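We give its fold:
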Amino acid sequence: MSDEKNLPKGKDIKRQFGFNREDYNVNEITADFVAFNKDLAKNLLRRAERGLITGKGLKLVLLHKRGDGKTHMANYVANTLSQRDLVKKIYLVNPAMSRGSRYIELHKVIIKALRDNNIILNIFNKAFAKRTKGMSDISSSRNVLNAFEAYQSKKATETELIRYISGDKLTSAVLEKLNVTGTLDTHEALKLLQMIADLFWNIDGKMIMLIIDEVDNLKEVTLGARDFKEAFRQIAEISKLSIMFIFNVAPEEKLSIEVLPSPLKDTGVVTRIGSRNYMIAPETMRISELRTFIAEVNQRLRGDDFKNALARAVKDFGKEEIDAELFPFTNKGFKSFERNVQKFLSESEKGRALLPRSVLSYVNDCCAEAVLSGKTAIDEKVVEDVGVFSQ
């Protein structure tokens, strides 16, 4: 039992194993690798590349069980293209919804994400400076153009402009300053999104790639479902916008398009996105891929003190027990961990998926147990003390 006064404080895992972070995990938002489903990742990346060449952004719906790597996969594709300066990735989480929610609630989150990434004011300032043709081409967005002109001429403040394009309710005095006829509605919001995507493509030469996670929150929407259906139909037709919806299937639900919220399985939406772009069952991690997965994660966790941590483990356990690819596991420790995972899968119902998130969580517990036990690597005893693998 550890002395509570001397209990490690967070950074001990990082220090003990030479990691570059305080826990055994990977940031799925900044993902730059895939350890399984590599064929699918290659396929999605290629399809996104084709879209960039033709100027028609990829529209995609990823649905599978929570924790199986969907967010990691989507971000890997977007990050790869972003590193090549081909897209601007915008990641956001679909907000919690109620029965009466409307699309404008999601629009607010999209606008905030675009603003946080310095896209909105930057691209419109460039557009006004150049008087880009694309602005006047969208005549139905006259209100939006008026609002930006009011901001440009300092008749309205930046806050008033942002509140308007976010769909906030404004006083008549502010609406008059912005020279608009009323609060931004769904129709105008969608025209604004198209306008931003078109301008970004024409001026910066890149495509906006939206990743909207946890769209399962839309299942709560009933009264506003029709508004979302129409919005998603129009979004699917914005050619200069790439978008990936991520849906988490509940454990008790079957992997089928039928579990999606009504706006995403609407015939008009499916037709525009394309049924082949509904990725219902990406291949799950297999036990045979466990070593590769751990090795890939380990490689990306190596910090400045990794070599020293490895040397300490070699001194304590012997060179034959420490493999740099598997560290912080000893060879025997990894085999014990692998057996635990195999036992869980063999005792689970047929078709049970091995979730990367659960694997990372279990290894993290093993790391913590090793630190508490004063060990420089995860051996068989540490794995035994952590107990059975579950998810």
Remarks:
- The mean pLDDT is 89.
- DSSP finds 18 helices and five strands in the chain.
- The chain has two domains: 4-25+286-386, 28-279.
